[in-house]
Amino acid sequence: MIIVMEPGASEEAIARVEAKIRENGLDVHISRGTERTLIGAVGDERKLEPEAFETLPGVERSLHILKPYKLVAREWHHASTVIDVGGVIVGGRELQVIAGPCSVETEPQMRESAAAVASAGARMMRGGAFKPRTSPYAFQGKGVEGLDMLKKAAAPHGLPIVTELMDVRMLDTFLDRGVDVIQIGARNMQNFDLLKELGRVNVPVILKRGLSATINEWLMAAEYIAAGGNHKIIFCERGVRTFETAYRNVLDVTAVPVLKRETHLPVIVDPSHAGGKAWMVPALSCAAVAAGADGLLIEVHPSPVDAWCDADQALSPSEFTMLMQTLSQISMAVGRTLPIPDMMRQAKSA
Ligand code: PEP
Ligand code: MN
Q1: Same structural domain for residues 214 and 343?
Q2: Is 74 domain-assigned?
Q3: Which residues, 6 or more positions from 112, have their beta carbon under 8 angstroms from its beta carbon?
Q4: What domain range is 161 assigned to?
Q5: What is the atom index within ligand 1 of the atom nearest the CA of 132?
Q6: Residues 293, 217 share a domain
Q7: Does one domain contain both 252 and 189?
Q8: From the CA of 311, which ligand is nearest?
Q9: Residue nearest to atom 10 of ligand 1 (CA)
Q10: Closest ligand 1 atom, CA of 126?
Q11: Pairwise CA distance, residues 199 & 205, whole Å
């Protein structure tokens, strides 16, 4: 059972709920988010009646959640949660596109990337400074220097930055360097110690789907973060591994409506790592938006053939600009918006 406290509920009210749960012989799990506190009763829930809690001060609602994932379930939070990343709202009517290179390489590459993605209408910038590579001999990323290069390139365009965290020992550095959204890559989706630490911070997390993770495993991974008190989680479908070898991964478009039904949290799609080829990215992006994704994470490089990592799947700036125009039109057909700079200029001059 979960007990949803009112925003700003006092410590005394929280303690009272906790005591009542314990009196009934159950354990208590408290998730203190920035917006509200959620209290879980863990154990044989049949002993508890939700009504018994609703009369206590500071309690908004209490209910039995049937799903194994609780805090992330739409069951208790029917409205979609929106996440504010420095003024960029994820999960609302407006779609958000995060774009940039696979990895941070050089200052000029980052400067050009930032200018290109911003002018095409992306609202956040990506770039990996710590790269999970299959080969230990492949480029592993620029490390902390890369975080600074990403921040420096994105700042003049007002783009919040998204970058992957692989090692919990780097978490404080990520926070110090002003990483706006922490990406947890497919390979770390079930790194539970890492997820627990992310539960303690107040920075939004993009949780990518594991290479062969089921929807349930993915939701449970998010629950680890939420259980620690960080409720700012964005799911990212990036393709799953199947028997098919004609493309890098199979984009599971079905996951989008399923996840939107199961969780109140935003869901975005990474078409780049799904297809693995730049020419597939437009079609997969269109499918994702049509299926109800809240946004996209797309690899863009000023000169894809020269990319140090994932060169085959990066879009050039002009390909990305064209794709954004198409996506903007598709978004309208599905009741969403994707404002792109040309449109914004036209709207202002009208
Ligand atoms: C990435 O986004 O650069 C990345 C490594 O993605 P994934 O974890 O989905 O493979
Ligand atoms: Mn990549």
Answers
A1: yes
A2: no
A3: 302, 317
A4: 83-349
A5: 5
A6: yes
A7: yes
A8: 2
A9: 186
A10: 2
A11: 9
